[in-house]
Write a structure and sequence with these properties.
Biotin_lipoyl, alpha+beta, 2 domains, three-stranded antiparallel sheet, OB fold (Dihydrolipoamide Acetyltransferase, E2P), Single_hybrid_motif, 147 residues, Lipoyl-binding domain-containing protein
């Protein structure tokens, strides 16, 4: 069906929504800045861990805590498996529920162990017994202890 485009009506429409568009663009710019800062922090954290692992400095076994100390805020294994990777270090702060703290391996399958929503904002204090690459854990064993 034929229609006529009215530039005056379009300009009036744009002007009517200009404040809303500016507010959205300001929120978008602020969110982009926050995300860029978060990505920079994550990159720095990754680079530090990579350097520590290459230098052999990060040994999760050195931060092993007994089960009694680990009982209050802990991330536990959901299955019997081998610890494939420890992706956190003491002092790290859990930024999101999806942060992977430990990667387990069972039957040639990697299983990511996320922090969980209840642990967002908590700090990694240490690890359960035998939580190190190659260590064996059973279902219910403490993997990571959080403050």
């Amino acid at each position: 069906e034929p229609a006529t485009f009215s530039m005056a009506a379009y300009d009036a429409f744009v002007d009517a929504h200009a404040d809303e568009v500016r507010a959205f663009e300001a929120r978008q710019a602020a969110a982009a800045e926050r995300e860029a800062a978060r990505e920079a922090a994550l990159l720095l954290r990754w680079q530090k861990r990579k350097a520590a692992a290459a230098a052999g400095e990060l040994d999760p076994a050195a931060y092993a805590l007994d089960d009694a100390a680990a009982s209050e805020h802990a991330v536990k294994s959901s299955l019997a498996a081998t610890v494939w990777k420890v992706r956190c270090a003491p002092g790290d702060v859990v930024a999101s529920a999806d942060d992977v703290l430990v990667v387990l391996e069972a039957m040639k399958t990697e299983v990511n162990v996320p922090a969980g929503a209840e642990n967002v904002g908590r700090t990694v204090r240490g690890f359960g017994r035998d939580v190190r690459p190659g260590g064996l854990v059973q279902a219910g064993d403490v993997l990571v202890v959080l403050d």
